[in-house]
Write a structure and sequence with these properties.
Blueprint lengths: L1 H18 L3 H12 L5 E5 L15 E6 L2 E6 L4 E18 L14 E7 L18 E2 L14 E2 L9 E8 L2 E9 L8 E6 L5 E6 L5 E3 L1
Parallel strand pairs: 8-12
Antiparallel strand pairs: 1-4, 2-3, 3-4, 4-5, 6-7, 8-9, 9-10, 10-11, 11-12
C-alpha cells in the first residue's frame, strides 16, 4: 500500500512543478527590482502556497512604490502585487550620550554602528566624516543617529565679517565686496549685503571663504 501511494504521489509532484511558477522566483524578481545597489537589501512577502501558472517567458517587474512591486506574466495572463520591505544599511555615527544645543560634537560623543537609514528623516552624517568643530543644533538624545541637519559645521564666517562675492555667468566672473549678515560654514547658504549697491544677495560659502552667488 505504501509503495502504491508513493508511485501515485511522485507524478503529481512532478506535474505541480511543471504547472505552477515557483514562488521563490516571483519573490526574487520583486526583491531584485528594489535592491538596485549593494547597500540595499529587500525581502518580499509571499504566501508559499501561492499557485500561479508557470510563466514561459521572463517575468515582468515594475516598482509601484517603496513597498510594492508588480510582478506579471503576460503569457500566462497573471499579475501580482508583491509587498517588499527594503533596508539601506550604512555605517553611521550614533550618539553615546545626550548633547545640549551648541555643544561640541567630538569623537567621545559618538560611536559607529550599521543602521537602516532608508527611513531617516534627513541626511545622514556617514561614519568617517570629520566632526571637528561641529556643534549640536538642538538637544540630541543618546542612541540617536547623527543627522546632517543637527550637526552644525564650523562657522568659517561670522556675522558682520567682510566677504568677497563671486558671480559667474557665461565664463565671466565678477567679484564684489560684501558683508555677511549671519554666520555660516562651508557649503551653507548665506545672506550677504553688497557693500557698493547695498543689495542683499544669497550665496553659498566656498572652502576659500568666498561666497558664490546663486
Amino acid at each position: 500500500m505504501r509503495a502504491l501511494l508513493f508511485a501515485i504521489l511522485v507524478p503529481n509532484a512532478v506535474l505541480g512543478a511543471q504547472t505552477f511558477h515557483p514562488v521563490t522566483e516571483i519573490a526574487r524578481a520583486a526583491e531584485t527590482a528594489v535592491a538596485i545597489s549593494p547597500d540595499i537589501s529587500a525581502t518580499a512577502t509571499l504566501d508559499p502556497g501561492l499557485r500561479l501558472p508557470r510563466c514561459a517567458e521572463p517575468l515582468s517587474v515594475h516598482v509601484v512604490n517603496t513597498g510594492t512591486v508588480e510582478v506579471s506574466c503576460s503569457a500566462a495572463g497573471w499579475r501580482l502585487y508583491v509587498p517588499v520591505r527594503s533596508q539601506r544599511l550604512q555605517q553611521v555615527y550614533v550618539l553615546r550620550r545626550p548633547l545640549a544645543p551648541g555643544e561640541v560634537i567630538d569623537a567621545s560623543a559618538v560611536g559607529v554602528e550599521t543602521r537602516d537609514v532608508s527611513r531617516s528623516p534627513g541626511g545622514i552624517v556617514p561614519a568617517g566624516t570629520p566632526l571637528e568643530g561641529r556643534t549640536a543644533r538642538r538637544a540630541l538624545p543618546a542612541g540617536s543617529v547623527l543627522l546632517a541637519q543637527d550637526a552644525v559645521p564650523p562657522r568659517s564666517i561670522r556675522r558682520g565679517d567682510p566677504v568677497t562675492l563671486i558671480s559667474r555667468s557665461g565664463g565671466v566672473e565678477v567679484r564684489a565686496s560684501g558683508r555677511a549678515l549671519a554666520a555660516a560654514g562651508v557649503d551653507e547658504r548665506l545672506s550677504v549685503e553688497n557693500v557698493s549697491s547695498r543689495r542683499v544677495v544669497q550665496g553659498v560659502v566656498l572652502a576659500s571663504g568666498e561666497v558664490l552667488v546663486r
